[in-house]
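Hey,
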Amino acid sequence: MIHSEYGYAEHERPSGNCYVSNFGSEAEYVAGLISHVETTIGKSIDTLSVCVDITGFMRPHLVFLPFYLKTKRVKKYDVLYSEPKYYAKKEQTVFSEGTIVVRQIEGFEGLNSTDQTNDFLIVGSGYDHRLIKAVAENKDKADKVQIFGLPSLRADMYQENVMRAGRASDAIGANKSFDRESFFAPANDPFITAEVVSEIVKLRKKLGPISNLYLSPLATKPQALGFALFYLSECIGTTTSILFPVSSKYARETSVGLQRVWQYTVE
């Protein structure tokens, strides 16, 4: 599976069974990928034992994946994630390039309240401060909190993460009604991440109603999966949306080495 945003030429692609698509949307891409698998194997995806390696997924596509598998009646599947030894240039690693457009992830648009006085944004903050800044400025009137990965994937990554995210602190701003600005969830655990997001929402609702709830998973792939699972469990049919600042281009080979592989079972 290759995303065109990484700019790999045809001669750079691996040989063998490789899925390449120029679909611009995550919905078209994932639907095309699943269709490709079904055509190749000759069976419907819901009759198979499914395992997906999310390491190379772009986050909008990763978030859309569990939504689509649910529509395909896949009740249980395994997810793999390969944890890097470290990022290539530590806290200076560049992940996204080019222009940024903030939009809702397909399947996670939610309802919309015209009352924006109590909008609330939860950002899963990773290294890419450009993305954090873009989504925070897009919802400049909303109260905002950040979730950082702690425990982090590697011992030094938490500090690197905070240093990079700090470059977007002006855009994050201060809350007018919520007394906390940072929360923590394990960088490698989607299920605890989902629980933490749920707890943040409950704490905020104790202070009064939320006009529109916005979620933006910009940290690790397991945490992005956790945001999606929370939404599918608790937010369908509500004024909740998942936002993502989509870049026109993404950097290649941002990590070095393989530390370990995580396996999660989603039901």
